C-alpha cells in the first residue's frame, strides 16, 4: 500500500512555484499577489486562510488578508469584492467558504471577476472547465488530479466512484476525470445521499473519492482489493486527549480501508495541502495571464 503524500507533493509544487516567482522577479516582471476574504471567525476557515497567506510568503507572492466580522452584510461583502476586482495589483482572490447565512453564496461568487477567480468557482470558469477550455480549475479537484499524476495512478478506462456532489469538489472532479485528458478518460459514477446501495457501487470501483463530509464513512467492506482511495473529508472530532481538544478525521476509515487499498491519501497530509498548492498555481497563472 502506497500513501499518496499530499504534504510532500504540495511542498514540491510550492518549490516549483517559488522558482518561477524568483525568475519573474529577476526578469523585472510583476510579483503575483493573492488576496483572501474571510467573513467571521470559524476555526477551520481561519486555519485554512492563514495557511494560504503563509504559503504565499513561502513562494514569494504578495498577499492580502481581509477579515470581516460575522455580521457583515451581503452588500458590504460585494463592495469588498468590487474593490479587489478593480485593484490593479491583485492578480487573484478568493472568498473563503462557507459564508454566514445572511449572505447568498452564489451572488458573491458571481461578483468575482472571472479573470481573478483563482478558486475557479465563477460560472464562466465552471462552464469553461466543463467544455475543456483553458480556465482556473477548482483547487481541490485540481490537487487530486495532480496527486494522481505525480504518483502515476492510471485513470484511463478505470471505474471511478465520487461520493458527494458539492460544487467545489465532487461535481467538478466527476467532470474532470471523465474528460479526455492526461488524468482522465475514466468511467465516472457520481454518488450522493440519494444513491441506493452505495456499497455495491463502491465495491466495483478502481478509484473511490470520498467527499461527502461524514467522518470515517467509507469502511473496508465497501472497497475492493487494490483500489485507490482519495479522502477529501476533514472533520474536527472532539477529543479531550488532544491538546487542541479535537482530532482530524477524514471521510475514510483509514484503519480498515488501508488494509485493502493500493494507494490511499491520509488525513491530515493528503488532499488538504494539495488544495493550497493548486490555489497558488492558479494565482501564478492569473499573474502570467496579465503579462
Ligand atoms: N474559497 C474556498 N473555500 C473553501 C475551499 C476552497 O478551495 N476555496 N476548500 C475548503 C477548505 N480549504 C480551502 O480553503 C482547505 C481545507 C483543508 C486544508 C488543509 O491543508 N488541511 C490540512 C489540515 C489542516 C488543519 O489542521 O485543519 C490537511 O488536510 O492536512 C487546506 C484548505 C472549504 N472552503
TrEMBL record:
* Binding-site list for NADP(+): 164-166, 234
* EC numbers on record: 1.5.1.5, 3.5.4.9
Q: Identify the residues that the record assigns to the Tetrahydrofolate dehydrogenase/cyclohydrolase catalytic domain, covering every copy.
A: 4-119
Pathway named in the protein's UniProt entry: One-carbon metabolism; tetrahydrofolate interconversion
Q: Where is the signal peptide?
A: none
Keyword field: Amino-acid biosynthesis, Histidine biosynthesis, Hydrolase, Methionine biosynthesis, Multifunctional enzyme, NADP, One-carbon metabolism, Oxidoreductase, Purine biosynthesis
Quote the catalytic activity from the record.
(6R)-5,10-methenyltetrahydrofolate + H2O = (6R)-10-formyltetrahydrofolate + H(+); (6R)-5,10-methylene-5,6,7,8-tetrahydrofolate + NADP(+) = (6R)-5,10-methenyltetrahydrofolate + NADPH
Q: Answer yes or no on keyword Iron-sulfur.
A: no
Q: Where is the Tetrahydrofolate dehydrogenase/cyclohydrolase NAD(P)-binding domain?
A: 138-289
**Coiled-coil ranges (or none):** none
Annotated TM spans: none
UniProt record similarity statement: Belongs to the tetrahydrofolate dehydrogenase/cyclohydrolase family.
**Could you give the subunit structure recorded for this chain?**
Homodimer.
Q: Function, please?
A: Catalyzes the oxidation of 5,10-methylenetetrahydrofolate to 5,10-methenyltetrahydrofolate and then the hydrolysis of 5,10-methenyltetrahydrofolate to 10-formyltetrahydrofolate.
For this entry, the protein name equals Bifunctional protein FolD
Organismal lineage:
Bacteria, Pseudomonadati, Bacteroidota, Flavobacteriia, Flavobacteriales
What gene makes this protein?
Answer: folD
Amino acid at each position: 500500500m502506497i500513501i499518496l503524500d499530499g504534504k510532500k507533493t504540495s511542498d514540491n509544487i510550492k518549490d516549483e512555484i517559488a522558482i518561477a516567482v524568483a525568475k519573474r522577479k529577476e526578469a523585472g516582471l510583476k510579483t503575483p499577489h493573492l488576496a483572501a476574504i474571510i467573513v467571521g471567525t470559524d476555526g477551520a476557515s481561519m486555519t485554512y486562510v492563514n495557511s494560504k497567506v503563509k504559503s504565499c510568503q513561502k513562494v514569494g507572492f504578495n498577499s492580502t488578508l481581509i477579515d470581516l466580522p460575522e455580521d457583515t452584510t451581503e452588500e458590504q461583502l460585494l463592495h469588498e469584492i468590487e474593490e479587489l476586482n478593480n485593484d490593479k495589483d491583485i492578480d487573484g482572490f478568493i472568498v473563503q467558504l462557507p459564508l454566514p447565512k445572511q449572505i447568498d453564496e452564489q451572488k458573491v461568487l458571481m461578483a468575482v471577476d472571472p479573470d481573478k477567480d483563482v478558486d475557479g468557482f465563477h460560472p464562466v470558469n465552471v462552464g469553461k472547465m466543463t467544455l475543456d477550455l483553458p480556465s482556473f480549475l477548482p483547487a481541490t479537484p485540481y490537487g487530486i488530479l495532480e496527486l494522481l499524476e505525480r504518483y502515476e495512478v492510471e485513470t484511463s478506462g478505470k471505474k471511478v466512484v465520487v461520493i458527494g456532489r458539492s460544487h467545489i469538489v465532487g461535481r467538478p472532479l466527476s467532470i474532470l476525470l471523465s474528460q479526455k485528458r492526461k488524468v482522465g478518460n475514466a468511467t465516472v459514477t457520481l454518488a450522493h445521499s440519494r444513491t441506493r446501495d452505495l456499497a455495491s457501487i463502491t465495491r466495483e470501483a478502481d478509484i473511490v473519492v470520498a467527499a461527502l463530509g461524514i467522518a470515517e464513512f467509507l469502511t473496508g467492506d465497501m472497497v475492493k482489493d487494490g483500489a485507490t482511495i482519495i479522502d477529501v473529508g476533514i472533520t474536527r472530532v472532539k477529543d479531550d486527549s488532544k491538546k487542541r481538544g479535537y482530532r482530524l478525521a477524514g471521510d475514510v476509515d483509514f484503519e480498515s480501508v488501508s488494509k485493502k487499498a493500493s494507494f490511499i491519501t491520509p488525513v491530515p497530509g493528503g488532499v488538504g495541502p494539495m488544495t493550497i498548492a493548486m490555489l497558488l498555481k492558479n494565482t501564478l497563472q492569473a499573474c502570467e495571464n496579465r503579462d
